[in-house]
Specification:
This protein has 18 helices and 12 strands. It is α/β, with parallel strands linked by helices. It has 3 domains: about 60 residues, no CATH class; about 110 residues, no CATH class; about 200 residues, 3-Layer(aba) Sandwich (Rossmann fold). The strands form 4 sheets. The chain has a 6-stranded mixed sheet, sandwiched between helices. Strand 10, helix 13 and strand 11 form a beta-alpha-beta unit. Helix 12 runs parallel beside helix 13. The longest helix is centred in the middle third of the chain and has 34 residues. It is elongated, with a radius of gyration of 38 Å.
């Protein structure tokens, strides 16, 4: 009969439902990622995260638990060390079962029932958690930690005094048990000594030495309570058998020892169950400065006429994810968001206008970068901020503007912690060639792999992969492999 293996490592003993669900989500990450891509692709920005749980379909083949069965064959020529049953050369019956030897009966029929794929729901909170797990800003440096005005509290141990709300009951119970064991130990030892004396009196066999029991190693390993229980049980059994054979002096001595045992038991009962002064332990937290991350993300979007509505939607979706990530990971106000749009001219807008603008016209990337540089130098030029720039575009630009665009970026890069460029393309156009902007940016990236990130979205479902690649913390540790995501790699030059 096969044995099913259920992996419970790392599971929470306090909430098995939560730990089992988390383990299930990890096992089916591929199906979840696929469903998230489909979900993102098929909804408007206003609907994402607001329209209830999403359905995740897991193929039934992925739900099987690992199991152990007899292997095919059964012939072995070796004996594994540690077995207590077989020697080399022994023969034994080949195990039944294994591959091709199931116990099922009957023949295949024309009709039958199968199992449906399993469908479960992912909450909106879990959806965002899956998208944003292990994501963060690259090269983020703490700023002004010595003048931090916000603090967190870190567990620093336990103390004897505090408010009732900070009592740690588990620690207090441990302290109470330790105190009770220590206080009762002398009385328990007296009880054990009295019980041993009683057994010596009750032993009427001249050839039996009771003291050998007390010197036995197994007896020595028992706890005080276990010794008392063993001695009491043994004494009662021997007393019932031999009491009538004792003389009056021996019976009197037994009674005196009974009184001593009762007196020590009363002393143990008199030990306070709880002593608030010595037992209660209160959580002690020390105040530690909260890391102060002063950062700004300047978002620049191409809204020129060459950008289709779908491309603009994909750009806005990228920035929506970015906004959610920064607020989720660093708080509502830790990272400032500034917004710039451009055609042949650039101008700063607020968040609402950024997502709702309908302007269009020609394309001049440097016009937008001029505004970005102005914001950077005017408002964040003192070096106290981590400055990041994100740009989305279809890659089109007035060719004579490319040198100036390149110069502006290279001029700003030394002061930046990261530059993120997502190029949007309409897959239906059939234009898969790299743009001039893309080729130019690759030369910049070659000298700045730790802070310059590029990705290309041929369709909406590519955006989450590009986004995760840009902000994956693990990728930030390996700059040589971080910038090219799966969507970009498809367009890498072929050797030869």
């Amino acid at each position: 009969m096969p044995s099913t293996i259920v992996d419970r490592r790392g599971g929470s003993s306090s909430d098995q439902y939560v730990s089992s669900r988390e383990r299930f989500l990890r096992r089916n990450k591929e199906a979840i990622d696929r469903a998230i891509d489909n979900y993102i692709s098929g909804r408007s920005i206003n609907d994402i995260g607001t329209d209830g749980p999403i359905d995740i379909t897991v193929p039934k083949r992925d739900l099987k638990e690992p199991n152990i069965t007899h292997g095919q064959g059964g012939k072995r020529t070796n004996v594994h060390p540690g077995n207590k049953e077989f020697m080399g050369g022994d023969q034994l019956q080949r195990p039944q079962g294994g591959q091709g030897q199931g116990t099922g009966e009957g023949e295949a029929g024309e009709e039958g029932q199968g199992e449906d794929d399993f469908v479960f729901q992912l909450t909106q909170e879990e959806l965002l958690e899956r998208i944003f797990e292990r994501l963060g800003l690259p090269n983020l440096e703490e700023r002004n930690s010595d003048t931090a005005k916000e603090f967190d509290y870190s567990h620093a141990g336990y103390q004897r005094n505090g408010t009732p709300s900070r009592i740690n009951f588990r620690r207090s119970k441990r302290q109470q048990i330790g105190r009770h064991l220590a206080a009762s130990a002398p009385y328990k030892k007296e009880i054990i000594s009295s019980l041993q004396d009683q057994l010596r009196i009750l032993n009427l066999d001249p050839d039996a030495n009771v003291d050998t029991l007390f010197e036995d190693q197994r007896y020595e390993k028992l706890t005080l309570n276990e010794k008392i229980a063993l001695l009491t049980e043994t004494r009662d059994a021997v007393r019932e058998e031999n009491l009538s054979l004792l003389d009056d002096a021996q019976k009197s001595l037994l009674t005196q020892l009974d009184d001593q045992i009762a007196e020590n038991e009363a002393k143990i009962k008199g030990i306070p169950r709880w002593d608030e002064d010595s037992d209660l332990r209160y959580r002690f937290d020390k105040q530690v400065p909260r890391p102060s991350y002063k950062a700004v993300m300047i978002c620049m979007m191409d809204i020129s006429g060459s950008m289709s509505e779908q491309m603009k939607h994909d750009s806005k979706l990228f920035y929506w994810l970015l906004n959610k990530l920064l607020k989720r990971e660093y708080g509502e106000d830790a990272v400032e968001m500034r917004y710039v749009v451009h055609t042949t001219e650039g101008w700063e807008v607020d968040e609402q206008e950024f997502y709702e603008t309908r302007e269009n016209g020609g394309t001049k990337v440097s016009a937008g970068l001029d505004i970005v540089k102005e914001i950077k130098e005017r408002d964040y030029g003192d070096g106290s901020y981590n400055v990041y720039i994100a740009q989305t575009s279809d890659g089109d630009n007035w060719r004579d503007d490319n040198p100036r665009t390149k110069g502006l970026i290279e001029d700003m890069l030394p002061d930046l912690k990261g530059f993120f460029y997502m190029e949007t393309k309409n897959n239906a156009w059939g234009n898969h060639d790299r743009s001039d902007i893309w080729n130019m940016y690759q030369t910049i990236r070659g000298a700045n792999e730790d802070k310059f990130f590029m990705g290309r979205a041929m369709q909406t479902s590519d955006i989450t992969r590009i986004f995760v690649d840009f902000f994956n913390i693990e990728n930030h540790k390996k700059p040589a492999a971080s910038a090219m995501n799966s969507a970009t790699a498809a367009f890498a030059p072929k050797a030869g």
